[in-house]
Design goal:
Length: 290
Amino acid sequence: MTPATAHGPMAPVPYRVTDRHAETADTVTLALEPVEAAVPEPVPGQFTMMYVFGIGEAPISVSRVGPFRAVRGSRPARGRGPVLEQTVRAVGAVTRAVCGTRPGRVVGLRGPFGTGWGLDEARGCDLVLAAGGIGLAPLRPVVLRALSDRSAFGRISVLIGARTPDDLLFTSELDTWRAKGAQVEVTVDRPTPGWAGHVGLITALAGSVEVDPARAAAFICGPEVMMRLTAEALIGLGMCPADIRLSLERNMHCGLGWCGHCQLGPLLLCRDGPVLPYERAVPLMTVREL
């Protein structure tokens, strides 16, 4: 369904930055509060197009949706909608501008766009969430919602991979996730002095998950080779491919399936994705230069 605003789906809605947290050297989480009207509430897995006035627009993962949280004396815009947290890595001119946006500045949001993870369909199941790098951002809302509705799900396993310990996201929350009942396993490619955790590929963690393969759902986000190999490892444990979903990334511009920049075979990922069933995603991922 096309998101609608009073001025149409291509018009950005003003949001004020109420907090900025540097997750790593190149990745930032912004808390955003609607200035007046709000965009519809995103479901876990959806994204918005964020516009930095005078610079441009980029798709940004929604990493939390929740009630207003006062930071540094800020005041809520009462009744105007939930606060969005969005996490972005600086990789180009627009995303560098997003990362550099300070509290008090106003940006524009359009959306939300795309398909979600389908968390409600996984109620009653064990959850396996596997994230590589910034892939943890769109999975964080799944973790938070599942832990807040703990009795609705079975065991929750969160597998996290990063290049180095300094590249890990949301590190201050991981012990809280564990305390609320999630199994959280972390691995890095290149350890730094003092690192006592796992070293190696995230696929090596798949064997440690506590899961009933017959009643489980897996959500995976990260580099495509990581997603494919992790999914194969989970299938090796007995999970059904139909119960595994991946989040794909392409060059998204309009968010509405109009411009075609994010075409992947027969799909337009801003509209038909980014979350796809494993069986639909993998045949497209294995076609060279598609």
